[in-house]
Predict the structure.
Amino acid sequence: MTDLVDRYLDWLRAERRKSAATLRAYRGDLRAFASWLGAQERPLPQTARTDLRRYLVELEQQGLVATSVQRKLASLRGLFAWLRETGAIAQDPARLLKGPKAPRRVPRFLTTAQIDQLLAQPFDETPQGQRDRAILETLYSSGCRVSECAGMKLADLDLDEGFVRVLGKGQKERLALLGRPAREAIAAWLPARRRLLAAARRLDPGTLWLNRFGRPLSARWVFQTVVDRAKAAGLPTSLTPHGLRHSFATHLLDRGADLRTVQELLGHARLVTTEIYTHVSIGRLRDVYDRAHPQGRLHEDAGPAP
């Protein structure tokens, strides 16, 4: 049983190029299921749909939230689909199996005034200060995930054209756009980056962001940079890089960007993932309604027609 799981994970790594974080999550989910199945004295290839249903019910009874159960079900779906494709099983018991419905939470985001507050805070004229400013500007300007930001390569950066090539989920490449403030902040960081490497006496690793020792900056450090800078600016300490990503999408839609464009910029594989942001455009829709509808506020203020 464990051998089949390990072979599947090897396939995900080699063929689907799943990230190390995804593989760790899948490994934990699948080994937990294999252990549960072993307690039922049932081999993995003999798993029935009723077994999967019982397992999901037990997970819910243990107090797991719907989103966690859905993630574990996604891991199982992938495993059994692979077993079916490789001929290890004749029927896929996870096919069409539905998990609990997870509530769609409205993403937290900053207002434009709060973004201004975050980016207008003083930054030291040190390599670290210039780097932090450039990271914040880049995250908000591009809408990148924290892992995408941390993985940016110097060779993939084009400040003249205003974009950087990033590697997203599923190892999919896309172009992340950079606005003028982000380009200027990165341009100020690059000489500081060279000085930092010289002081550390290290060969250039090729990544855009470096720590004070001249080594590539980790995604965890980028995450902590956002938390620390939010606190310094007097903003909620719950702000994360993903909060800047949410703000990026929110502000685009609120200013008239279409959903498909935002989907491309965020690197979402499915439009339904992007649709969670449509709530934010209600203010813009209200303005359009008030201006255009006969019973809109502007028409009401004008009084009765003569």
